[in-house]
Design goal:
Low-confidence stretches of chain A: none
Distance between the termini of chain B: 20 Å
Strand order of the largest sheet of chain B: 1-2
Order of helices and strands of chain B: HHHHHEHHHHEHHHHH
Helix content of chain B: over 70%
Radius of gyration of chain B: 20 Å
Strand order of the largest sheet of chain A: 1-2
Strand content of chain A: under 5%
Largest sheet of chain A: 2 strands, antiparallel
Shape of chain B: globular
Order of helices and strands of chain A: HHHHEEHHHHHHH
Oligomer: heterodimer
Radius of gyration of chain A: 18 Å
C-alpha cells in the first residue's frame, strides 16, 4: 500500500513541472493555434542554461530558474517574430514542418555545444530526504514542485490582473473581438509565445536536479506536453495544469504496476481514452 | 504526342541504365530516394489528398516489417507473401484507429496527436515483446535468394524500389482520376460542405486510411530486407513518422509528383549537409538540414512542386 502512496506522491511532485511545461504549450496554442513542436527542445535549452550557470558560476538551479525563464522568453519571442509570424495562415502541415525544423536546429545546437552524454546538475542536497511515516520524499522534488506552483500562480496573476495578460486572454478567446477593440495582436502573439517559452524554460531548470538529460531529451518532453494539453483541453490553462499533475501521477503509478520502462504508456492510453470519449479535454468546454 | 513518347522512353531508359553507371554511394542514394518517395506517396493518399495528417505512419511501416520478418523466421513463409499479410494487418489496424478517430469526429491537430499516440503505444509494446527482440532489436540473417526478398548487390534493390514507387504512383494516379479522389479532395478542402453535399466522408476517409496503411506496410518489408535489422526505437519512433511525412509535404502534398520531388530534394539536402558539414562538430549537419527545412517552409509555403508549377504557368502566360 505504502508503495502506491509513495508512487502517487512522487508522481504528484514531478507533475508540477509537467504542468508548467504543458501550460506553456497550451498558452501558445490557445493564442496562435500553432502547435509548438520545438517545445521540449526549448525546455532542454533551459536545462543546459541552468547547467552552464551551475558549472561556471555555481548558481543553484532553483535560483537560475528566473534567469533561464527570461532567456528562453527572449528565444521564444525571437522565434515568433522571425518565423512563426510568417506562417500563421499557412496550412497545418507547413506549420508543423516549420516548428519541427526549429526543433531540429535547437536540439542539434545543444548537441554541438554539450555533446551526447547525459548530464545532470549535482546539487549538494540532491540526496537529502524526509521520512513521513513509511513514505520517503526527496528535498529537490519538494522544492521543484513548490517553485513550479509559485511560477504557475505568477502566470495566473499575470494573465488575470495585468493589462498585458488580459490582452493575451482576449486574443485567445476571440481574436476578431480583440482586434476590434484595438488590441495590438502582433505584440500579443510575440508576448504569448515568449511567456509560453519562458514557462517551459523554467520547467527545464526545475527539472535539472531531478533527472539526467541529453540533447535528445526534448522529444519526450514535447510528446508528454502534447499529451497533457489534450488531456486537459487544448488552450485551456487550468486543464493543462491539472492534466500535468494527473499524467505525473499516472506515469508514476504505471511504473509501479507495470514495468518502469512502460510507464509512459499509461499517459498515452489516457490520451487515447480522452480523445475518444471527451475530445474537448477534461476542462475544455468547447472545441 | 511523339515528343512526349520520346521523352518518356528516354526517361525510362535512363532509369534502367542509371544503376549500372552509378557508383555504390549513388546507388544507395537513389534507392533511399525511391524508397522514401514510395512511403511519401503512401502517406500522400491520406495526408495529401484526404488532408488527414498522420504522424503515426511508422506504426503501419513497422507492422509490415515485423509481420513479414516474423512469418519468415518462424514459419518460413517467403516475404513476398509475408508482406501482403503485413499490408492486410496494417490496413486492419488503420481501420481500428480510423474508426475510433473519425467516428468521434477528431479533426485537425486532434487526429495528428491520436496517430502519434498510437504509434508511441506500439513502440513501447514492441520494446517489451520478446519475439520482436526487445531493446536489442531483430537481426535478419542474410541469405542471398530472391525468393526470400534478399539480393546480392544493390542493383536488384534499385529495381524493386523503383517498381514499388511506380506501383504507388500508379495507385495515386488512379485515385486522382476517380470519383474517390475527388471526394477525398472535397473532404480536405471543406469536410462539412462535402458532407452536406452527400459525400460519405467517414467511409472515404476510412478507405483512404486503409490504402495508405497497406502501401506503407509494404515499404516496411522492403526496409527490413534492405537493412537486415529492426529496432522499435528506430522504426517506430516519431522521428521515423516525421521522415515519412516530411517529403510529400516539402514536395507538395496532394500531388503525384510532390512526394517524388520532395524525396529527391530532401535526399540531396541531407547528402549535401552530410558531405560538407558532417566533418564539423557532431550535429552541425542536422542544424543545416533543419535550417534548410525552415527556408523551404518560409519561401515555398505550398510545397516545391505547386510553386514550380505556378512559376512555369506564369512564365508561359507571359510569352503567349
Amino acid at each position: 500500500m505504502s508503495l502506491y502512496v509513495q508512487a502517487i506522491i512522487n508522481g504528484l511532485l514531478i507533475g508540477g513541472v509537467y504542468s508548467l511545461m504543458a501550460v506553456g504549450l497550451s498558452l501558445i496554442f490557445g493564442v496562435m493555434r500553432v502547435i509548438n513542436f520545438a517545445h521540449g527542445d526549448m525546455m532542454v535549452w533551459g536545462m543546459y542554461l541552468s547547467l552552464w550557470l551551475f558549472i561556471t558560476l555555481g548558481v543553484d538551479p532553483y535560483l537560475s530558474v528566473f534567469f533561464t525563464g527570461a532567456a528562453v522568453f527572449i528565444l521564444g519571442a525571437a522565434i515568433q517574430r522571425g518565423l512563426v509570424n510568417r506562417i500563421l495562415t499557412a496550412p497545418h502541415e507547413m506549420q508543423i514542418l516549420l516548428m519541427m525544423g526549429v526543433g531540429l536546429v535547437l536540439e542539434n545546437l545543444s548537441l554541438m555545444t554539450w555533446g551526447p552524454d547525459p548530464r545532470r546538475v549535482n546539487v549538494s542536497y540532491a540526496l537529502t530526504t524526509f521520512w513521513m511515516g513509511p513514505i520517503v520524499v526527496d528535498l529537490p522534488r519538494i522544492v521543484t514542485f513548490a517553485l513550479a506552483l509559485v511560477l504557475a500562480l505568477c502566470l495566473y496573476l499575470f494573465l488575470s490582473r495585468t493589462d498585458l495578460g488580459r490582452m493575451i486572454r482576449a486574443a485567445s478567446d476571440n481574436q476578431t473581438g480583440a482586434l476590434l477593440v484595438g488590441t495590438d495582436i502582433r505584440k500579443v502573439f510575440t508576448l504569448a509565445f515568449g511567456v509560453g517559452a519562458a514557462c517551459v524554460g523554467a520547467a527545464g531548470s526545475l527539472m535539472t536536479p531531478l533527472l539526467p538529460f541529453t540533447p535528445s531529451s526534448g522529444l519526450l518532453f514535447t510528446v508528454t506536453s502534447f499529451n497533457i494539453v489534450i488531456i486537459g483541453g487544448m488552450g485551456n490553462l487550468l486543464g493543462a495544469f491539472v492534466g500535468g499533475l494527473l499524467v505525473g501521477v499516472s506515469e508514476s503509478l504505471g511504473a509501479v504496476v507495470l514495468v518502469p520502462s512502460l510507464k509512459e504508456i499509461v499517459g498515452f492510453v489516457l490520451l487515447v481514452l480522452i480523445l475518444l470519449f471527451r475530445p474537448q479535454g477534461l476542462m475544455g468546454g468547447r472545441r | 504526342m511523339i515528343l512526349r513518347l520520346v521523352l518518356g522512353l528516354a526517361a525510362g531508359a535512363g532509369l534502367v541504365l542509371l544503376p549500372f553507371v552509378a557508383s555504390s554511394v549513388w546507388q544507395n542514394l537513389l534507392i533511399t530516394t525511391f524508397y522514401f518517395a514510395y512511403l511519401g506517396q503512401a502517406w500522400n493518399v491520406l495526408g495529401g489528398y484526404a488532408g488527414q495528417l498522420s504522424l503515426g505512419h511508422a506504426a503501419f511501416f513497422s507492422i509490415g516489417a515485423y509481420t513479414s520478418v516474423v512469418l519468415h523466421t518462424h514459419l518460413g513463409l517467403s516475404p513476398w507473401f509475408g508482406m501482403l499479410a503485413g499490408a492486410v494487418l496494417a490496413a486492419l489496424v488503420s481501420q481500428g484507429i480510423g474508426f475510433l478517430g473519425f467516428r468521434f469526429g477528431l479533426r485537425g491537430f486532434y487526429f495528428v496527436l491520436l496517430t502519434l499516440a498510437v504509434a508511441e503505444i506500439l513502440r513501447l509494446v514492441a520494446l517489451h515483446l520478446p519475439i520482436l527482440g526487445g531493446y536489442t532489436g531483430l537481426f535478419i540473417n542474410f541469405t542471398p535468394n530472391p525468393w526470400q526478398f534478399q539480393f546480392k548487390g544493390k542493383i536488384p534493390y534499385y529495381f524493386v524500389a523503383l517498381s514499388f514507387l511506380g506501383l504507388a504512383s500508379g495507385v495515386v494516379w488512379l485515385i486522382e482520376r476517380s470519383k474517390f479522389g475527388v471526394y477525398l479532395v472535397a473532404i480536405r478542402e471543406d469536410e462539412d460542405a462535402a458532407e452536406a453535399l452527400g459525400v460519405d466522408t467517414f467511409r472515404y476517409k476510412m478507405l483512404a486510411y486503409a490504402v495508405s496503411a497497406a502501401l506503407t506496410a509494404l515499404g516496411g518489408t522492403f526496409y527490413a530486407y534492405y537493412q537486415f535489422y529492426l529496432q522499435p526505437n528506430t522504426v517506430l519512433s516519431m522521428h521515423h513518422s516525421v521522415d515519412i511525412m516530411i517529403r510529400p509535404i516539402v514536395g507538395g502534398s496532394g500531388t503525384i509528383l510532390g512526394p517524388i520531388l520532395g524525396s529527391f530534394l530532401l535526399e540531396l539536402m541531407g547528402e549535401f549537409s552530410r558531405t560538407y558539414f558532417a566533418a564539423g562538430a557532431a550535429g552541425l549537419y542536422v542544424v543545416i538540414y533543419g535550417l534548410l527545412l525552415i527556408v523551404v517552409v518560409l519561401f515555398l509555403p505550398r510545397g516545391v512542386y505547386p510553386t514550380l508549377l505556378g512559376w512555369f504557368r506564369r512564365a508561359l502566360g507571359r510569352h503567349a
